[in-house]
Amino acid sequence: MKALLLLPLLTPLLLAGTAAHAQTVQAAGSEIRFVTRQMGVPVEGRFTRWQAQLAFDARQPQAATVAFGIDTRSIAFGAAETEAEAATPAWFHSAQFPQAQFRSTAVKALGNGRYEVVGTLTIKGQAREVLVPVTLTPGPAAGQGTASGSFTLKRLDFRLGEGEWADVSAVANEVQVRFRLQLSGLAAP
Amino acid sequence: MRTLAALLLALAAGPAAAEPVSYRLDPSHSFVHFEWPHAGLSTLHGRFDKTAGRVTLDREAGTGGGRIEVRLDSVNTGRPALDAALRQALGAGLAVFDIDTLRVDGGRVLAAQGPLRWAGRQHTLDLQAQRFNCYTSPLFRRQVCGGEFSTTLDPAALGLDLRAAFGLGAPLVLRVQVEGVRMEAGDEDGS
């Protein structure tokens, strides 16, 4: 039953994976990080388990699709106490919402390797549209490249930090998400 | 030879150039706990959940000061009904502890003295450290200093008499669990 429910979610990912110009994300050198502020002090975390499916052709960027699945239990701060707190119902409620997802709905080329990706980010069952600027840098080898970018989300939009944690003077509402993806399988432009 | 003397002087002057550092209390590791004798029998243990403040410390010069504010309506004994009654008795204001003097030895805070103000009353507290240390926090990736402090007082000194209503007498022991994150230029003022 659970598998059946997941099927509609997985279908676009499978389609993306079988597109003519699907890329592979190399785990080495790729990362999804985020920075929030606690008491005004920057606190950095990352997710260690996630998958990405990309289908991108520089000649047809508007047809590109991007999908992410992020294991919310893989959150890492370098502090076990904080990681345990992040999994609780007040934050990611990881037992009930083990995966956060992003699915692109539109990709626009801005020139010079810069793109604007609009998509739906779903965390803790809350779906919000986000605009993600992406820079694609080719190399080092043929067919390889680095996609990087950052965007800011508001944690309360996703009910991250409920109850006493809703106080944005303790933990800021703004969370900056930074990503870098090492890609292979890029078609020559 | 003159150069060597100048170099030695410069080296000697080095550590003295340390400046006072400001620390902001980490609310998830800073709580004021209390131990209040009940009817001459057991001890009521509880804490105030919400504490905020800043402390300035010059570990080289051995000086410092600061302010710690405790939200009285955040009283937490683990029994919601008792907490509601205590909130009525204590009110919704702040208890403010102004640290006038920090006693520091070898870079460690040994004691903190200053007036505690509550509901128009004032009583000088003398908090003694059972422990004090600094380390680099893996979460904040910067210096965090903190310790465990305690003091004993007669609640009557603050005009606080809960003997008749709650059977809570004297002396009242306060235990302060406190950690402060080193502030740096560019930090947002989130307080």
Provide a short characterization of the protein structure.
The complex is a heterodimer of chains A (189) and B (191). Chain A has two helices and ten strands, in the order αβββββαβββββ.
Q: Tell me the helix content of chain B.
A: 10-25%
> Looking across the biggest beta sheet of chain B, what order are the strands in?
1-4-5-7-9-10-11-12
- Oligomer state equals heterodimer
Strand content of chain B: over 45%
User: In which order are the strands of the major sheet of chain A placed?
Assistant: 1-3-4-6-7-8-9-10
Q: CATH topology of chain B, what is it called?
A: Lipocalin
Distance between the termini of chain A: 43 Å
Tally of individual domains of chain B: 1
CATH superfamily of chain A: Lipid/polyisoprenoid-binding, YceI-like
Q: Which residue ranges of chain A are poorly predicted, with pLDDT under 50 across at least 5 consecutive positions?
A: 1-19
- Structural category of chain A is mainly beta
Could you name the CATH homologous superfamily of chain B? Lipid/polyisoprenoid-binding, YceI-like
Order of helices and strands of chain B: HEEEEEEHEEEEEHE
Largest sheet of chain A: 8 strands, antiparallel, barrel
Low-pLDDT stretches of chain B are 10-16
Report the end-to-end length of chain B measured between terminal Cα atoms: 53 Å
Task: Give the C-alpha Rg of chain A.
Answer: 17 Å
Rg for CA atoms of chain B: 20 Å
